[in-house]
Write a structure and sequence with these properties.
The complex is a heterodimer of chains A (304) and B (558). With 304 residues, chain A is mainly beta. Helix content of chain A is 3%, strand content 37%. In chain A, strand 14 (215-221) and strand 15 (224-232) form a beta hairpin. In chain A, 53% of the residues are buried. Mean pLDDT of chain A is 87; it is low at 1-13. Chain B is of the alpha/beta class and 558 residues long. Chain B is 18% helix and 23% strand. In chain B, the strands form 6 sheets. Chain B has an 8-stranded parallel β-barrel with strand order 2-3-6-9-14-15-16-17. Chain B has a 6-stranded antiparallel beta sheet with strand order 22-25-20-21-24-23, with no helix packed on it. In chain B, a hairpin with a 4-residue loop joins strand 20 and strand 21 (465-468). The model of chain B is unreliable at 24-38, 40-47, 263-270, 345-350, 379-384, 399-403, 434-443 and 487-499 (pLDDT under 50). The chains are: A mainly beta (304), B alpha/beta (558). At the A-B interface, strand 1, strand 7 and strand 19 of A face strand 1, helix 3, helix 6 and helix 13 of B. Strand 19 (301-303) of chain A pairs antiparallel with strand 1 (4-6) of chain B.
């Protein structure tokens, strides 16, 4: 396993400027992006047995990424930061982000006169790789008989509310034969004068809990906090399930790794994505697996 | 013996195809006449998805330094012995060419293919009438030049020659850092303010962010094997001490004559003035940095990529390797050799024996036992026994007009498979688009092979519109894809077929091959092409061999 190279930009270093929300918590390192470049930074979503149809994603001439809305799934997963390793079940290529991060995506779509129902809506969200790989890596450590637990962060979902609003939710999924979805969601309203039809910055902040501070996540729109924080106490493997209550909901995330996802499963709402970035204190906690393909390509060649 | 290994340390045999991106013609459109970019459709999406299905693991991008650096290049005018500068031609003021190179790299990566970046066309500077300009990079010169070719590889960000926009240009390696470099690499080497490249992905490209790219410094040197009566010196104008061509290639110096590959007494490859040299050379001194300076310059930028060193006689004469091979600053050395292997023509394109001016021993590859790679890798051709040999261009021959498979490439595949994995590679010339105007034609794998020669008379405008003044005789079909080899004194078969020459991209009016019919050419031939005898070949697909090549690559991909 490789670790992501990273550097912190200090005074006098002409690095990229972190978003205010990221800088405020020390996430000054751009560990991923910002180009939404298909097959370099973003890849067709092939986890969970999904196959995206040909042409579902394409690069615009201005290097923005176009998502047509044609999709192989109904849960709005178009592109993410890696792919399932089809040659080795349970493994993946690409990057999953651990230890806290600020995810930021700039995109637009035609909002139409009304929003879609429960499926096929534009969404910027994240799911942990421990679940996506379907290799039992999402086992609830410390608990027996086996419980599975994984976190989903929905930074932005354009669903079921007026076309000036979107939803923002954390899901804490667990299962020992019967799925439990403990969620904490909210509807947020765009600032006056804003429109989904224009490029907007959607941000999601994840800060892990420590022994002295609660972990939390928050949603941002064009750098402004748009949803109040939701927080949790540090994860304790000895706490018996089901303990996803007002203090523990979401805290399993702190030991997992997120794959940010952009997608839409309806051609009524095609997305154009201008940038896709991840800011962190360091990339050291990320899972990074170089791409390998038939024929031996691993992303590196040398003489030995 | 060193071997090519992937990121897991596993020896790897390179198998793939060329993607020619060498030319931007003098009227400002690209190789395939599509200003939106070769290999991409009008929507910007990469076309050759089929390439992935062939299970290639390597793709070679031929490049043009004048376009990549966006330089103003001069068109030559004047008279014999008294050249003057004509109008400037801008390299690529809108960065379309650069963007195409970047997109191709990304595309190949996504298909699991190692990109080989190679310098195909470049041009030295010349001074006429007190004015110094770059010559036109419109065809293949004898070797890498100091003025344009060196900065193409080694110039840092904003440290290259002044471009057509009045700004200092950026070389290829530095541009790769800006696109793909990791934060650690860019910090250590001063790129991008220490930030990762815009298109960096921690999972691709290794510690530098572009360690999957192989650099091939110069395509086909022919300071030996393609020019006559030239001398080499350590100083301009014949000053200093004399050099052998091997010394010139390794350590640099001055060469007494310039040339573009297709220059003859009637076709001047864009230079546009008559020659003062009976040998068809442009008799003006020019400077080369030599391989050592280029390698040093690339390493000085921090890049640790594998570099291919190609020999003289159009990348054939491997017995020269010991005397031209530079020293790498890296240990183990990351230098290997590129080799070109075409069956047809026997002379420059065949086994470089003493009989055809070469210094290697052997016979042409009529069986896997005596195919060139075997000779190379068993030590009869010098350093080939110690470093990997990557055949970066190869092509079959054909009988008549049918594209009959001669078995040459089969022998090559068998010979490569008889060697240790990691010691060799093979890329066919080339993946091409049959119809080249507007990006509408089907992309296909074409192995180079020649049809019978066609003869005709024609005139051509400076805009590249050709009009037949007599009907075509002696060949199959004159039309899209027909390659003009010249006119007048050109003898049929005396030059090897080459996509670098002007070729027919579209029938504009009339009946194909009939007198009076008109055609759009891929580039504007010299103005001296006027109502004279001309010859052409068709370059044919080789369906039989292509199927075999595809099967060979697929069989090794698992």
């Amino acid at each position: 396993m490789l670790q992501a190279a990273s550097i912190v930009y200090g005074a006098g270093t002409a690095g990229p400027t972190p978003p205010p929300a990221a800088a405020a918590v020390g996430y000054n390192t751009l560990t991923y992006g910002p180009a939404p470049s298909l097959n370099t930074n973003l890849f067709s979503f092939n986890f969970l047995n999904n196959t995206e149809p040909g042409g579902a994603q394409s690069q615009n001439l201005d290097d923005s990424l176009h998502l047509s809305g044609a999709s192989g799934n109904t849960y709005n997963a178009g592109v993410t930061t890696g792919q399932k390793n089809t040659g080795a079940p349970g493994l993946f290529y690409g990057t999953a982000f651990g230890g806290g991060a600020y995810f930021e995506c700039v995109f637009k779509f035609p909002p139409g006169a009304s929003q879609p129902g429960t499926a096929g809506f534009p969404a910027f969200w994240a799911l942990v790789i421990e679940h996506l790989t379907q290799n039992n890596a999402d086992t609830w450590t410390g608990q027996y008989p086996p419980w599975f637990r994984y976190i989903e962060l929905d930074f932005m979902e354009y669903v079921g509310v007026p076309n000036t609003q979107f939803k923002s939710t954390i899901h804490d999924w667990s299962d020992n034969g019967s799925t439990v979805n403990a969620a904490n969601g909210a509807t947020v309203t765009l600032p006056s004068g804003s429109s989904f039809a224009n490029y907007n910055k959607y941000g999601g902040l994840w800060v892990p809990a420590t022994s002295t501070s609660r972990g939390y996540w928050a949603t941002y729109f064009n750098d402004a906090l748009i949803r109040s924080n939701y927080s949790w106490i540090p994860f304790n493997s000895l706490t018996a399930p089901p303990v996803v209550d007002g203090t523990t909901l979401g805290n399993f995330l702190d030991q997992q790794h997120l794959m940010p996802i952009l997608g839409v499963s309806s051609t009524n709402y095609p997305i154009d994505c201008q940038s896709f970035s991840v800011w962190q204190a360091s990339g050291a906690g990320n899972l990074v697996h170089p791409f390998a393909a038939a024929g031996g390509y691993t992303g590196v060649i040398a003489l030995a | 013996m060193s071997k090519l290994v992937n990121g897991n340390g596993v020896p790897i045999q390179l198998r793939g195809c060329n993607f020619p991106m060498d030319s931007q013609n003098m009227s400002g459109t690209f190789w395939n006449g599509n200003p939106g970019g070769a290999y991409f459709g009008s929507d910007g999406a990469p076309i050759p998805t089929i390439v992935k299905s062939w299970k290639m693991n390597c793709a070679r991008i031929t490049t043009n330094a004048g376009n990549f650096l966006n330089l103003n290049m001069g068109v030559l005018g004047g008279t014999v012995g008294a050249p003057t500068w004509g109008a400037n031609v801008s390299g690529d003021p809108l960065n379309v060419y650069r963007d195409m190179i970047r997109r191709l790299i990304i595309f190949f990566r996504s298909g699991g293919m190692y990109p080989i970046l190679e310098l195909h066309w470049t041009s030295a500077q010349f001074t006429f009438g007190g004015t110094t300009k770059f010559g036109p990079a419109t065809n293949q010169p004898p070797f890498i030049d100091y003025d344009m070719g060196l900065p193409f590889w080694t110039a840092g960000v904003g440290a290259g020659p002044v471009n057509s926009l009045g700004a200092a240009s950026t070389g290829l390696v530095a541009q790769l850092a800006l696109w793909f470099g990791t934060a650690a690499f860019n910090t250590a080497n001063g790129f991008n303010g220490g930030a990762a490249g815009t298109y960096n992905n921690p999972a691709i490209g290794g510690t530098s962010g572009f360690n999957d790219c192989i650099f091939e410094i110069f395509n086909e040197p022919y300071v030996f094997g393609g020019m006559t009566n030239v001398v080499f010196n350590t100083a301009n104008g014949g000053g200093g001490s004399s050099l052998t061509y091997q010394q010139f290639m390794k350590s640099g110096g001055w060469c007494s004559k310039w040339k573009l590959q297709d220059d003859t007494s009637t076709y001047r490859g864009g230079l546009g003035i008559p020659y003062a040299d009976a040998d068809g050379n442009f008799p003006y001194w020019w400077r080369s940095p030599g391989y050592q300076a280029v390698v040093n310059g690339i390493r000085a930028l921090g890049a640790t990529n594998v570099i291919l060193i190609n020999t003289a006689l159009f990348a054939h004469q491997l017995c020269d390797l010991p005397s031209i091979m530079p020293t790498d600053t890296l240990s183990p050395s990351q230098l290997a050799t590129g080799y070109h292997d075409y069956e047809y023509n026997g002379g420059n394109s065949g086994w470089p024996t003493a009989a055809n001016g070469g210094c290697d021993s052997g016979t042409n590859g009529t069986s896997s036992a005596n195919a060139l790679p075997v000779k190379v890798m068993t030590g009869t051709a010098g350093l080939g026994a110690a470093i990997p040999v990557v055949i970066t261009e190869a092509g079959n021959s054909a009988s008549g007009t049918s594209g009959t498979n001669s078995g040459y490439m089969d022998n090559m595949h068998a010979a490569l498979d008889g060697q240790a994995v990691g010691t060799n590679g093979w890329l066919c010339w080339a993946w091409l688009q049959q119809t080249n105007v507007g990006g509408t034609g089907a992309w296909q794998y074409q192995e180079v092979c020649m049809s019978a020669t066609m003869n005709f008379s024609a005139s051509c405008t400076s805009g590249g519109v050709l009009t037949l003044t007599s009907a075509v005789t002696g060949g199959p079909t004159f039309g899209e894809g027909s390659v003009l080899t010249g006119g007048g004194a050109i003898t049929n078969g005396s030059v090897s077929p080459c996509w670098d020459r002007p070729w027919v991209s579209k029938l504009l009016s009339g009946t194909a091959g009939a007198s009076g019919s008109t055609y759009q050419m891929s580039s504007a031939p010299p103005s001296s092409w006027s109502s004279q005898a001309m010859t052409a070949y068709n370059v044919l697909p080789m369906p039989q061999q292509g199927t075999k090549d595809q099967a060979w690559m697929a069989a090794h991909a698992a």
